[in-house]
Every structure is written in C-alpha cells, then in structure tokens.
Amino acid sequence: MNREDLEGLTTTFYVAAPEDGAWGLSAEQFEAGLRRLSAQTMTVPLAAPQDMSQHLAFDDHSLVFAVHVGDVPVEGQFMDAAQSLNIGPCTVGEAAAFIEWFQSLLPEGARIRFNSEEGVESGDMSDHWIPVGAQRDVVGEGLLDHLDEVVDE
C-alpha cells in the first residue's frame, strides 16, 4: 500500500502509558476532559464478565466513549487499570487528532506508546512511541510510518 492508501485505512490504534509508569489519569479525569472538549460526548461504563475481569485490563472505572475533536469523530475505550486507550476503528488523521488532544490531559513530559490492530496481527508486538508534546502532523507521520512497516501490500 502507498502512503495515500494508508491514510485512508481504518484500524484500531492501541495507546498506553510506558510499562514502567502510569500516567496517573483516572477514568473520571478522562471523562471530564472529554466533556470539556465537547458537550455532545457520550460515555458508557466498560465492563467485562466478572470471571474475566482479572485477566483483562478492565475495572469499574473503564469506559467506552464517542466524541468530536473539532469536526473529527472518534470512538474508543479508556481502561483505567491499564492506563490505556483503544482508539477506533479510525483513520490515521482521526487518531492523530485525538492523540494530540489527549496529551493535554497528561502530566508534562508523559510518554505515549502505541501499536495498531495491523501491527498486532502482523506479529509486531514492539512499542512505538509518540514524541512528547507532538502536534497532529507529527503524530500522524508516526502512525503512518508504523502502518507502512506492518501492512502487507
């Protein structure tokens, strides 16, 4: 696939705090940030069957969300216990818009690692990194570079 095709590809992006440290962001803080971003934000608690909750990164403070970042619609899940997000399915541009905004909720200098559904399916279990404080275009280029590496022609 060429980069133009990759820009239109719809996938899920997995975003998380570094393994050695949490962002310190609670689901309540995340939800409050979403509501400041857009009054039309929709959230629903995310739950797993009780017998599976110990094996999954869900807890009583995880949620599903739908929001607009400007005119860009984004859906996903925030998992409090794992300090992680699933964004999408969406395009690189939609994910980049959300990640740029999401950084405003994190402590200064917080690092963000990511992967994608395509990366995981191709066997790429490496951490990829968003530069601290990156603007939308830089985030988008990083996401595109990742997809360029993991998506088969």
Topology of this structure?
Layout: H1 3-8, E1 11-16, H2 27-37, E2 42-45, E3 63-69, E4 72-79, E5 84-90, H3 92-102, E6 112-116, H4 117-121, E7 128-130, H5 136-150
Antiparallel strand pairs: 1-5, 1-6, 2-3, 3-4, 4-5, 6-7
Helix pairs in contact: 3-5
The share of residues in helices is: 25-40%
Mean pLDDT: 89
Overall outline: globular
Summarize the biggest pleated sheet.
7 strands, antiparallel
| Rg over CA atoms | 15 Å
Distance between the termini: 5 Å
Strand and helix order: HEHEEEEHEHEH
Structural class category: alpha+beta
What does the oligomeric state look like here? single chain
The number of distinct β-strands equals 7
The domain tally reads: 1
Task: Describe the strand arrangement of the main beta sheet, using strand numbers.
Answer: 2-3-4-5-1-6-7
Q: β content, as a range?
A: 25-35%
Tally of DSSP helical segments: 5
Low-confidence stretches: 49-58
Q: Could you name the key traits of this structure?
A:
26% strand, alpha+beta
Give an overview in words.
A seven-stranded antiparallel sheet has the order 2-3-4-5-1-6-7. Helix 3 packs across helix 5. It has helices at residues 3-8, 27-37, 92-102, 117-121, 136-150, and strands at 11-16, 42-45, 63-69, 72-79, 84-90, 112-116, 128-130. It has one domain (3-150). By secondary structure, the chain is α+β, with helices and mostly antiparallel strands. The longest helix has 15 residues, at 136-150. 28% of the residues are buried.
Give a concise summary.
It is built from 5 helices and 7 strands.
